[in-house]
Specification:
By secondary structure, this protein is an alpha/beta fold. The chain has a single domain, classed as Rossmann fold (3-Layer(aba) Sandwich).
């Protein structure tokens, strides 16, 4: 049976080359009824550029030779499943016990409850670290990047995806602008991350090797689709009084076809 571990607040660094130390292995968590997957994971799992999802694009940034990989802010574990390969150990880390319990039901793990501020891994022990959307969640981000760099071996890879402002076309901007006006809040894109991520990586001892953007689309076919997408893109949308009107707007076919809302994604790859 797969265990969900809880890490102590302050993991001790171990000599490079040893297996990562998961500090404070606590207890096997009781089985709870399945929890609904996070909204972000649902949206990213159904966003496509061609036949590729953002998770698949992120997984391709990790070398087949990487045998010990950690996915941060793993949620219910979709990225960990994309990374799974013969001979590879993928460790999912998240602060949410609820999300880790769902991940445990979905795949083998191992799963660790811990903060990116103090990762329970030996210094220089990980071949790769990934995160889908963690760059806009980790705070303070400089400290998180420094801790990721500490856990990576020399030559190890950090790969992340995050929302971005581009590429967006005129139709994309018109739809997002209309929804922003209806919900009275801007879409949750990147803010200062577009400008600062390069210097922050350098300060942490990571060298940016790739910085690419790709336009994905999410097809809205049901009202639940529209709600999930709005909750993922617009902070506070679930509490907005005009949410029903925004859902109806997304349910209105364009030239007889379902609305396809843009989900622009940025992939950043850095090497220690």
């Amino acid at each position: 049976m797969t265990m969900v571990h809880s890490a102590e607040p302050a993991p001790a660094a171990e000599p490079a080359g040893q297996q990562p130390a998961v500090a404070g292995v606590a207890r096997l968590l009781a089985e709870y009824p399945p929890d609904r997957a996070s909204v972000n994971e649902e949206v990213l799992s159904r966003s496509y550029s061609g036949r590729q999802t953002p998770y698949q694009w992120l997984a391709r940034a990790v070398s087949n030779r990487a045998s010990l990989v950690c996915d941060l802010a793993c949620g219910p574990g979709r990225m960990c499943r994309e990374l799974a390969a013969a001979g590879r150990t993928v460790i999912g880390v998240d602060t949410s016990r609820t999300e880790l319990q769902q991940a445990q039901r979905n795949s083998a793990g191992p799963w660790v409850q811990a903060s990116v501020a103090r990762l329970p891994f030996a210094t220089g022990s990980l071949d790769a670290v990934t995160t889908a959307m963690g760059l806009i969640e980790f705070s303070p981000l400089p400290d998180a990047l420094a801790e990721i760099a500490r856990a990576l071996r020399p030559g190890g890879v950090f790969a992340a995806i995050a929302p971005t402002f581009r590429p967006l076309g005129p139709t994309d901007l018109r739809i997002l602008g209309r929804l922003s006006g209806m919900l009275r809040t801007p879409p949750r894109l990147t803010g200062s991350l577009e400008i600062t991520v390069g210097p922050l990586l350098n300060a942490a001892g990571l060298t940016r090797a790739e910085d690419r953007r790709e336009r994905y689309t999410f097809e809205v076919t049901e009202r639940d689709d529209a709600r999930r997408l709005l909750e993922a893109l617009f902070p506070g949308a679930s509490a907005a009084e005009r949410l029903p009107a925004a859902i109806e707007y997304l349910m209105s076919p364009v030239d007889g076809a379902p609305v396809r809302l843009p989900v622009p994604i940025r992939r950043i790859v850095a090497v220690k």
